[in-house]
Amino acid sequence: MSIGRNISADEKLNISMEMFIMKKSTLIEIVNKCIQTGSYNSIKAPIYNEVSKFNLNAYEFKGYLQCVNSLQNYYKTSMDMLN
């Protein structure tokens, strides 16, 4: 299984929503690894880098999804949702 990041290459693409459901012990292990190594700049990085160590499953979400990363995009997304 592979996980794709949204790099805005295509209008429509099967990508990861970057939402993960995991055991508390797994999350603690990942956080501790981030703290100990200091080599990760986000909590998602070790998940992507060590994806082969995890038992992954995927769920296809067919609803509305938009990346909100600016004030302008927040406004556009809000207007889209009203429609």
From TrEMBL:
<dbReference type="InterPro" id="IPR029044">
    <property type="entry name" value="Nucleotide-diphossugar_trans"/>
</dbReference>
<protein>
    <submittedName>
        <fullName>Uncharacterized protein</fullName>
    </submittedName>
</protein>
